[in-house]
Amino acid sequence: MSAHEKINYVEFAAKDLGATKEFFRKAFAWEFTDYGDDYTAFSGEGLDGGFYQADLATSAERGGALIVFYSEGLEETLEKVKKAGAEITREIFSFPGGRRFHFREPSGNEFAVWSDKGL
């Protein structure tokens, strides 16, 4: 059941839906449901959402929201996203309460991964 007036769903543009789906499958074992050729959805990943076909991408430096994943093994997750084809845009760095890194998936959307383990 959805919570009243709480964030419920997030959508991202994707220049290459196939490459984006393959990246998230490899890096995070996500599963997708396609709705036609121009939209794919994911669920059960902390927040449900989808990707739609568009020549756009989101990044924090251009004012976009930054979606941040949590990891219990930051270095292992870094290696997984590299192997799956991500571009690392900020290597692991410390901040008060944890460490994180930023990456771009194949369609150019920026995400981050943080951990409070290994401090």
Structure description:
By secondary structure, this protein is of the alpha/beta class. It has 2 helices and 8 strands. The chain has helices at 17-28, 74-83, and strands spanning 9-14, 33-34, 39-42, 48-53, 67-70, 87-95, 98-104, 110-115. β3 and β4 form a beta hairpin.
In short:
The protein is α/β, with parallel strands linked by helices and 119 residues long. It has helices spanning 17-28, 74-83, and strands at residues 9-14, 33-34, 39-42, 48-53, 67-70, 87-95, 98-104, 110-115. Strand 7 (98-104) and strand 8 form a beta hairpin.
Order of helices and strands: EHEEEEHEEE
What is the gyration radius calculated from CA atoms? Answer: 14 Å
- Give a quick account of the main beta sheet: strands, pairing sense, barrel closure: 4 strands, mixed
Query: Uncertain segments of ≥5 residues (pLDDT<50)?
Result: none
Oligomer: single chain
- What topology, given as strand order, has the largest sheet? 1-4-3-2
Walk me through the topology.
Blueprint: E1 9-14, H1 17-28, E2 33-34, E3 39-42, E4 48-53, E5 67-70, H2 74-83, E6 87-95, E7 98-104, E8 110-115
Parallel strand pairs: 1-4, 5-8
Antiparallel strand pairs: 2-3, 3-4, 6-7, 7-8
Summary tags:
four-stranded mixed β-sheet, 119 residues, 2 helices, alpha/beta, single chain, 8 strands, 37% strand
